[in-house]
Amino acid sequence: MISAEQRETRDLLRARLVLVGRVLRCRRSIGALLEKYNVTTPAALPALPRLQAALHAEQGTLLTTQIRRLEQVLRDQILPTPNAQRLVWVPGIGKLVAYTLLLEIDDIRRFPTVRHFHSYCRLVPGARDSGGKTRHKPSRDGNRYLKIAFHHAAIRAIQYFAEIRSAYQGHVRRKGKIIARARIAKELATIVYAMLSKEEAFNGKFCGHNLTRTKRPQ
To answer: 43, 78, 113: which is the final residue of a domain?
Structure first.
């Protein structure tokens, strides 16, 4: 259980994720209409389907405005904090991912070791034992929001940092894309755990290698 003073802010961030999901559903609904009538723009739809698409677009616009209001509140509360300022320098971690990590983790001292932290973030597989054999399965224990955040950060880090992309491609050749992305996410979690535990800035390294690219100050 996280601390009571952080709970309301964390729930607000989770509400943002719900709103984002609704915006995506609106966009998918418009796309389904375009596909159904084999046209490329809502203006080319017949009258009634065009009205339906317009309603989805208006709802998406309203939801996007609400998301921006919510993000403004979160930014003013969280972004100036020292830990947020440290986290946004980590590859793949932007403002919203930093907010998620800080609010879902709360106090890093809740986790005595990095292995406990990995487990809570759902970054290690579960076990399915049968007949003396151990098989791995996706774990449903822990915090799914942290898993989403670290996997999102892993995707961005792979896109923009050559050394991380090289490590990912090496994992892909041996284990496939899903496990490769999970390993990058796990390494980012290790970096975050070390930074928050020691209250230190990001040292510019990934898996012991110096990154040639760094983020610009903002």
So the answer is: 78
